[in-house]
Amino acid sequence: MRQLFKKLFNGGAVASRSGIPALPKQAAYREMEYQFKRGFIAREISAELHYEPKKGNELLFLSFLRPKGQNNKKRVKEDSIFLLSEHLLDWGSASKDVEKEIERLSFPEDVKNAVRMVYLKHKDALFEKSSTECKKAHDDTKSTAKEWAIYRDVIFAATQGKLKLIEKDEVQKYEKSDVLYEGMVQKRADIPYNRQEIRKILEQKT
């Protein structure tokens, strides 16, 4: 957020003749953070579409007064830009492939390119994670790795060393001779099927 505020206020933001709109008195921090990001994206999209800077600033300020998903049939262009801004924020927070989502949009190519440019320029600042979120993600990764190690050791012991789970990047060091069998395990029924196929191959070799 700090980077976004620097981009906005370096050199001073220019208010329209009607003045800066009064903000809602009871707005929560998260709500105002969302409104700011949406307005910032709307302003940047309008700049990529070569709108006048005054229009971009109006969009930024209007974002604080506009409920999410609001439509105004008299201001179609404005609605479209806010809708695109909301999409970008939703995709980013959901960790979706944003560039693929942009490509699926039913908008003219120049509009999609404008949205794409804004995303590429500002994605780090717009979707940066807090230190708490980063720590949680790190802890989750460590927990998953620990669980994996336990499963691997238990299965190895239970099969008396006949079955060892390995990571994908470990496969190459075990491929020292011809591969006897390859199979997919996508559902429970695949396990006994693959086991039977492997047994047949081994029986043929004894």
Structure description:
This protein is mainly α and 206 residues long. The protein folds into three domains: 2-126, no CATH class; 129-175, no CATH class; 181-206. 63% of the residues lie in helices and 0% in strands. The radius of gyration is 27 Å and the shape is elongated. Residues 11-18 have low confidence and may be disordered.
Which term fits the overall shape? elongated
Structural class comes to mainly alpha
Q: Which stretches are low in confidence, meaning pLDDT under 50 for 5 or more residues running? A: 11-18
Please trace the helix and strand order, writing H or E for each element: HHHHHHHHH
Approximate helicity band: 55-70%
Radius of gyration: 27 Å
| Main sheet makeup | none
N-C termini distance = 67 Å
- Mean pLDDT score, rounded? 78
Number of domains: 3
List its salient traits.
63% helix, mainly alpha, 9 helices, 206 residues
Briefly, what is this?
This protein is an all-alpha fold.
Question: Secondary-structure map with pairings?
Answer:
Layout: H1 2-9, H2 29-48, H3 53-62, H4 76-93, H5 98-104, H6 109-126, H7 131-158, H8 171-174, H9 190-205
